[in-house]
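Table 4 source record.
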Amino acid sequence: MPEPVAIKKKVNLRTPDVMSAVQAQVESHYRSNVVERLKASGGALTVDGLTIKLAKQFGFCYGVERAIDLAYAARKVFTDQRLYILGEIIHNPEVNQQIADLGIKNLVGPSREPDLSFLTAEDVVIVPAFGTDTAVLNQIKERGCQIVDTTCGDVMSVWKRVRQNASDDVTSVIHGKAAHEETRATASRAVLNGKGHYLVVLSLDETDYVCNYIRNGGNKEDFLQRFQGAYSEGFDPDLHLKRVGVANQTTMLRGETEEVQRRIEAAIQDRDGKEQLPKNFRFFDTICGATQERQDALRDMLQEKLDLLLVVGGYNSSNTTHLAEMGEEKLPTYFIRNASRLESRKSIVHWNLKKRCEVVSENWLPETPCVIGITAGASCPNNLIEDSILRIFELFGINKDQIQ
């Protein structure tokens, strides 16, 4: 039997000298004077009939900033060791490229499963802001690697709830995307020492299907086929929907998560009666505060006069996608990765939420006077927002000097 590998003592990366150097480096990459000026002026800037309005809350949240800081700090502290990361640190391609440029290699390939086979006790592995599942984490620990854990505190709050569900033999119904890194990490914590189960629901349609099964039963094989890949091993809807706790991926739309909760609660009450509801149903508000702030700020901005909305950020960012969904309900909305997608006044390349690919739209930009709203998800740095703002002004013949 091989000797157990000693777990390394945790290294404090957040010393004053390290963090001072890290923050200077991060600011040089992501800071924006234009965005800071816009914020200082109340979030609006008008030049020659073109008004840019910025949502009151946008861009990097504390959890993202912390994750990036820790990755940069790891590079400064572990200068002579190999550094790896379990996938993307956040869902923004430019930020992930900066991490790669630091010499931090991604362990996750196209299969979405990490290759840990070559790791040694001399290596450093960064856990991204989404967290990782327990099986992967245990394998890394068994190899004796130094672990730099950047998991967001809001995500860990959800883990606490689903672990409690597992301990109490309560099934966690998780509102989220089954393939998303955060949801996979949360699901792994909804089973505990052989106890507990989970089911992931993405939409209200899926929720209604589950609610109908709770009320009336149904064909178990059809249920399991519909939710293939979105439930725990051994999950049986006839057994494991008796007692349910609703949890969520932290970046979902709050209103939708609350509706999932209300519908499942109503179904269990219809099946069991009001007296049994406290025993058989539980729910905790675990939407990320930054996600909610950005959604609320956009909701407020959408009450104002806007001709169109630009949403800036990574296309695989859940919280950014939801901002684009909110915008599309109200007015012409274009979800762009960065300023390079603003090709001309006639042509824009943007993400189509329904087709799940980039498309080209023509004649997208109105004539002045016009008002263009801009927001960005929690994984989008200010420099990319600035690039987009400057590009819009440029398309109207307004150079950077005119807006300083």
